[in-house]
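Appendix B, example 12.
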Amino acid sequence: MAKLTAKKLAAVAAPAPDPGATARIVRQVTSAFVGRLPAAARSGHYRVEPGDQFDGSYAVPDGHYRVVGADWIVAFRDGRFVEAYRALPPDYGGAAVIAVAADG
């Protein structure tokens, strides 16, 4: 039998994320990021470092998200906003990007 680690146990015990709350948080983070676009992001990619103005804990499942109509994809890992990058045609980040409605 496989050993159940603390991380696996937490994942099993954690309630399923609320899609509506996730969408609201992704919209808020995207809006804040785009509204205060750091000069370092002008290259099309931005990595959020510890202590950065965008660093913080968010109740968002791991993934890459794009608010429909936005030019940026925001990525979350382990409840942290970790990076943003430009959503470029033709596929705007590809099938792995989770689309979030622009309004909710």
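The longest strand covers residues 80-86. Confidence is low (pLDDT under 50) at residues 8-13.
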